[in-house]
Write a structure and sequence with these properties.
The protein is mainly alpha-helical. The protein is 50% helix and 0% strand.
Length: 149
């Protein structure tokens, strides 16, 4: 039977994750449930956030912190949070293409679509088909970056 990690052991494992975020994948469950360790992963290697505990991935307060750092970790948030307007707005604020991980209901929300497509051209790929054909959304689309040097 495994004992709980001491504070020193926890500190050492988190320090190791800070040096090599890939370790989060094989870290003990209590480290994958540790907010400090999970935020290090979000900052350095966001795709490893998928190994965070279900508790962290379903905590609205924690997910708001995580998506403020990297909106794309919305992909690994609990389904209910991917349908939460506040969480999704925080995610797309810094990462407009994070809309691709929002629920279908929110990808069909015109106000959200107008915001993200006006800031990032490629976000149009992720809004609902109905909004892709909406004249106002099309008009709001950000211009393509100038390809000429």
């Amino acid at each position: 039977m495994r004992k709980t990690m001491t504070k020193n052991e926890t500190f050492l494992v988190i320090a190791a994750i800070d040096k090599s975020p890939k370790l989060f994948k094989i870290a003990p469950g209590e480290i994958q449930d540790n907010e400090e360790a999970a935020l290090i992963v979000v900052e350095q290697k966001p795709e490893y956030f998928k190994y965070a505990s279900a508790r962290l991935r379903s905590s609205k307060a924690f997910i708001k912190k995580a998506v403020a750092i990297c909106g794309n970790v919305l992909e690994y948030a609990d389904k209910k949070l991917r349908d939460d307007r506040t969480v999704v707005w925080i995610a797309v604020d810094g990462h407009p293409c994070a809309i691709q991980f929002a629920s279908a209901r929110l990808r069909n929300q015109k106000s959200l679509a107008l915001d993200v497509v006006s800031r990032h051209n490629f976000a149009m790929d992720y809004v609902s088909d109905r909004l892709k054909a909406d004249g106002e959304v099309i008009e709001a689309r950000a211009p393509y970056p100038d390809m000429v040097s």
